[in-house]
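Re: export button greyed out
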Amino acid sequence: MSKRPTIADVAQRAGVSKGAVSFALNGRPGLAQATVDKILAAADELGWRPSNRARSLSVSKAFALGLVITRDPAVLSSDPFFPAFIAGVESVLSTRGQALVLQVVTAGESEEDGYRRLAGDGRVDGVLLSDLRHDDPRIDLLVELGLPAVTLNRPDGTSPFPAVTLDDRPGTRAVVEHLLELGHTRIAHVAGPSAFVHATARSTALVETLAAAGLEPAAVEVGDFTAAGGIAATRRLLALPKPPTAIVYANDRMAIAGLGAAQAAGLTVPDDLSVAGFDDSELAEYVHPGLTTVRADPFRFGEAAAQTLNRVVDGESDVPDVELPPAQLVVRRSTGPV
Amino acid sequence: MSKRPTIADVAQRAGVSKGAVSFALNGRPGLAQATVDKILAAADELGWRPSNRARSLSVSKAFALGLVITRDPAVLSSDPFFPAFIAGVESVLSTRGQALVLQVVTAGESEEDGYRRLAGDGRVDGVLLSDLRHDDPRIDLLVELGLPAVTLNRPDGTSPFPAVTLDDRPGTRAVVEHLLELGHTRIAHVAGPSAFVHATARSTALVETLAAAGLEPAAVEVGDFTAAGGIAATRRLLALPKPPTAIVYANDRMAIAGLGAAQAAGLTVPDDLSVAGFDDSELAEYVHPGLTTVRADPFRFGEAAAQTLNRVVDGESDVPDVELPPAQLVVRRSTGPV
DNA sequence: GATGCTGGTTAAACCGGTTTAAATGGAGGA
DNA sequence: TCCTCCATTTAAACCGGTTTAACCAGCATC
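Workaround output, generated via the alternate export path:
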């Protein structure tokens, strides 16, 4: 069981100093090409890979990015967004030898502590800020902590961090127009919690599209993105004196649950009620009837977010925002004529 | 913007040497109590927290655990297991100042590289081995890499690592017995990929329970744990000359998709067909009809796994296996009399 | 009074890299 | 021949902790 080689071993083997090896490895100028070749050959023969820990200490970098996920009720539990998003992040990190540090903040602990820990421990060089909220307190917190960040979608206040955005509005607009074309006029909405930026973005897009057609929502219920919330909101909508003929949900989980609630109430979808979701989660295609929804691309979202954050971390100034192609309408069987 | 204090600052303030501060911090014997108090007070006043990076380098530990998730087809995509599992892991790590490094291996890269990277970079002190497969090659790999591990469920070969187990069999048995009580005799099964230990555990429990009642499965289809696989398997089962009156799926995603397929084929659940899943994912309760399934506790699974791995990492020898309370049957509306 | 212990403390080496200032050596110019 | 200058290369400091060996005062022992 031979110990893992260190930079000193490589230096000795190549007949140069430690410093020279470091220079060669990092492609610094000032070394003769022949020397560089000799060093790289020696490193190769020994199978040397520089120690992350030593590098971390001397350059004061963690070579890792962080993601804090708040898991308050069960908002996260089966969210189809994160797994794919994380996969996208990884696809970038793996090429740069970086790691992803995940922190799930459970109900007890405060989310703020999560960020403080990540920063205080020097675990990460920057964080991805997801599920942005209005007047999000985390932005000031990160500024205070001096931790670079990238926001997923654009915060409403001023933010020193670049934003990676994926516009939910065109997709929402398309859903509403699709329903209008089918002849619906009593369209209700089950929104996400109004604290979230993306929740209100979807809601206002819906309201505006209806307004452009001279309509307003039959009703708006606020859900919490969970299946349980979707059920409750749906029941309230169906109990209205003049129930809607179509319901647009702010995410698929609420929509699928709402679909179940409607069916449990004896309604046939889409004959008696049209239902649309948002996310195009895996199950959307396979429930009965297949769910009309809006598809984003969380993998590319993750890629773009990681790339952008890395530019910030690398010290680039004025990193521009990145705008991803908007979400697309996917029409399935859960929507039909009135 | 004052720099963050180092151990030297604390030492100076307390009027002692760096070494003394280190001793005091780590609660080592050999220091007078008065000195310890003085040092801790000084550290407190300065708000000093030892640098993880420096500690990592000098003690050769990462203070982090790793989890590699393979995301080959889309097997992971909306698996309800991981988010809760990870939350459980975090609940343990956060109390010890450890971090969780997540590595999602996408289709392109080989899973083996994922572990090699994690080990080679010295990012983690140990890993959690999930989705155990028969003759899992990762066990030998981790031995070769010298990376401590804990397996989720017990591998069939010999393994030097402790196992944290949650027996799926009692739950599966309960599902089958429940269906037998309802009068079903033509019970089919949609299994998970036979490479997975937990998939075959569920399958054999099903077969054995039926055998105890003098029956055998009406048919067994192998799915891949995805919704798409669930649909395909269900269609094949329903196309049989004598289709089953009940289908037991190896997980909820396949079951929910199967439910949709059955309904799309014009069947009424549970009148024409009973359906049962496994996991008790969030949507199980809210689809129509509510899905009869088996509930495990992934959060506690994560807790137990992290605790056990930490015992190994801390150098304890002969860490015993941990057995969690078995999964429980949850009866809902998707199962009924023949 | 020299010797031996012992609890308390420190100086210095070490972990494995990066980085800066200084040293080396050979070519070109006076 | 001697001096400069420039391209290479190296020695040493540094990052911020941990750990080992040495040191020192005080006290008991003989």
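Chain A has twelve helices and twelve strands. The button fix ships in the next patch.
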